[in-house]
Specification:
The strands form 3 sheets. Strands 6-7-5-8-9-10 form a 6-stranded mixed sheet, sandwiched between helices. Helix 5 runs parallel beside helix 8 and helix 9 runs antiparallel to helix 10. Helices cover 45% and strands 18% of the residues. With 493 residues, it is an alpha/beta fold. The chain contains 18 helices and 13 strands. The chain has 4 domains: 174 residues, 3-Layer(aba) Sandwich (Rossmann fold); 61 residues; 174 residues, 3-Layer(aba) Sandwich (Rossmann fold); 52 residues, no CATH class. The N terminus is likely disordered.
């Protein structure tokens, strides 16, 4: 299987049961040469420290402490350019941990433009090779996409396997896919990424041998593999189209009963699944690891107006999300496209919230869902200090909420403790336009037990009076249910 060939280069050797150690390489392009010299000095100082501890593997937290002290001049230069080396490297580290790996060392390469042959330049390649050998690393991970030529050259120069950012993300998706649909989507994304990068990957891709009995209409191993992968891609697309048809049929059945859908979207590890569990009472997987949720979950919830909606939990987004994943997961992300309201869950405790918000909106724009009504939810307020929390609560309460337009205010919540969830449900209620809430006055005979039960279950009763065998009710509820009770409405209503 072509997918098996891809997984041979994955970030974790699951069969051996051993945690793989990786050298992380951050790449910062467009930086002046003097800043790059400062980066080299910092990396060399770090490699000396790592060399002394090469025979004693350190836990990820220890490696993190060793490698998060770059030169201040480099930080200042990056900050002046609006870049964020620390955030990018910290996020890349979390990706590795989500893949089941361990950090052996971290290096940063800053240069004005990419090197066509190796991305980072021959001098940096030699330095990475020395660090990888000194730390007994199993692989080198680049926080940047590599071309086929760069990947081939780096594999030839380094003493271990080489993966880029997209390969690492695809490996995490493969690790977390549970349903048949999710596995199909991940395999499709893997193969579409792998296909243009087949050329030059070692002796396995060399031409068939020449000589007696081998001349004639043959084809290279590369062409054979490419043809097999293309056939598999075509089959996966057919299978996923069948999944889409089933989803459309299910959606059509849901649309026969007017129950709107509300979708949770947001950056990976923003707390969407925890919030989903808190609101719905479900028991979907909650994890601090990135991309723990790949398959959409749907649960019905009741709003304060007694309207019922379907709440959907979706896959998280990330900066530079591979386009192959957005394309392959379009069947899953159809829940976002079809939702009436989007709930954008943000990590209120993150120092990089604005950048994460921009990345989420970028993906929503790709899905043509950026203009949908959105409610911004600032999650994890339980992690804030008292002053930060008070300021955030004051700001969200003073602004408009749930007006249905993108960016119309925010709701502060803690999905872990449940604080603010009632405000969120009220905001969803205000943002929904389908099946609007109506007020009515009804006179219902007491022998109409079914009607009275439906009113109690689906409407908010504001006042109740008994007039002999008739109950007079002042209610508010969904227009569809109020319409079903029109024979009981008081004249003038």
């Amino acid at each position: 299987m072509a997918s098996e060939a891809y997984r041979n280069g994955s970030a974790a050797t699951y069969g051996s049961g051993r945690v793989e150690r990786a050298v992380l390489v951050g790449v910062d392009l467009g930086v002046r040469s003097r800043d790059n010299r400062a980066s080299v000095m910092a990396a060399r100082a770090q490699s000396v420290c790592l060399d002394s501890a090469a025979n004693e593997p350190a836990p990820p937290s220890s490696a993190t402490r060793t490698s998060t002290h770059p030169q201040r001049s480099v930080d200042a230069a990056r900050e002046a350019q609006g870049l964020d080396a620390e955030a990018s490297l910290a996020e890349f580290r979390e990706l590795l941990l989500s893949a089941g790996g361990q950090v052996a060392a971290e290096l940063m390469q800053r240069r004005p433009r990419p090197d066509p042959a190796t991305l980072i330049g021959s001098g940096k390649v030699e330095e990475i090779a020395a660090v990888a050998a000194a730390t007994n690393a199993d692989l080198v991970l680049f926080d940047h996409d590599l071309t086929a030529t760069q990947l081939r050259n780096l594999e030839a120069a380094l003493p271990c396997r080489v993966l880029d950012r997209t390969q690492l993300i695809l490996d995490i998706f493969a690790r977390h896919a549970r349903t048949r649909e999710g596995q199909l989507q991940v395999e499709l994304a893997q193969l579409e990424y792998m296909l243009p990068r087949l050329t030059g990957r070692g002796k396995a891709m060399s031409q068939l041998g020449g000589g007696i009995g081998t001349r004639g209409p043959g084809e290279t191993q590369l062409e054979t593999d490419r043809r097999r992968i293309q056939r598999r891609i075509d089959q996966l697309k057919r299978d996923l189209e069948a999944v889409r048809r089933v989803r459309r049929q299910q959606r059509q059945r849901r649309e026969a009963v007017p129950v709107p859908t509300v979708a949770l979207v947001g950056y990976t590890n923003a707390g969407k699944s925890t919030l989903f569990n808190t609101v719905t009472g479900a028991q979907v997987l909650e994890s601090s690891r990135m991309f723990a949720t790949l398959d959409p979950k749907l649960r019905a919830i009741e709003l304060p107006s007694r309207r019922r909606v379907l709440l959907s939990d979706t896959v998280g987004f990330i900066r530079n999300l591979p386009h192959t994943l957005v394309t392959s997961f379009r069947a899953t992300l159809e829940e976002v496209e079809q939702a009436e309201v989007l709930i954008h869950v943000r990590d209120a405790a993150s120092s990089y919230g604005d950048e994460q918000k921009a990345q989420v909106e970028k993906v929503l724009d790709e899905l043509e869902s950026l203009s949908k009504p959105r409610i911004e939810v600032l999650n994890k307020i339980d992690l804030l200090g008292e002053e930060e929390r008070a300021a955030l609560l004051s700001r969200t309460k003073s602004g408009p909420k749930g007006e249905g337009a993108p960016g119309a205010g925010a709701v502060a919540v803690s999905a872990l403790t449940g604080e603010g969830v009632d405000d969120l449900l009220a905001a969803i209620d205000a943002a929904l336009h389908s099946d609007p809430v109506m007020e009515a006055e009804l006179r219902v005979p007491q022998h109409e037990g079914a009607a009275l039960a439906a009113i109690e279950a689906g409407m908010v009763v504001h006042a109740r009076e008994y007039e002999g065998n008739v109950v007079r009710l002042t209610v508010s509820g969904p227009a569809s249910l109020v319409g079903r009770m029109r024979r009981f409405r008081v004249r003038g209503e």
